[in-house]
Design brief:
Helix 2 (20-32) runs antiparallel to helix 8 (127-152) and helix 5 packs antiparallel against helix 6. This protein starts with 6 loop residues before the first helix and ends with a helix. The protein has 155 residues and is mostly helical. It is globular and about 50 Å long. The relative contact order is 0.18. It contains eight helices and no strands.
Length: 155
Amino acid sequence: MAEIFTDKKVKEIKKIYLWEPWFFLFFGLFHLHRIWALFDRESYASFWMGIMENKGVVYFLIMGILAGLCVLGIITFIKNRKSNYWWRWIYIFGGSYVLFDLFAIAIGMEFWSRLLEMMFDTNSPYWNIIWIFFIVLGGCVFILGIGLLRRLKGK
């Protein structure tokens, strides 16, 4: 006989972990900072290309945080595979993309390096389209984080 799930039972099965809203808030802010690219192309491109080429402390700090959060998200998705929220698919697709991106940058994958050079080409006619896409993505992810935080707090 099939068990009927009450709202309380569903909430017991589907749990929002304390760190999850902060995951989306962090990634949202990380993408929203790209507003800078719309106002000062040269300094934005110079800053990020410098970070990626030098691979210093700031690079490893940022990449470590991003990679750690992505791995945590993917583990959470797998751990809750029978009772996931829709937004946890972001961990799989977005997290896999970010981990690949970080890996490709870390090993200096030639085709990825060329792609990044094209993305950071300040004379590209696609500059605004590329960075506006990331800004909109960041805004959506940030709003999701706020929604999850409110939901977690029961508001």
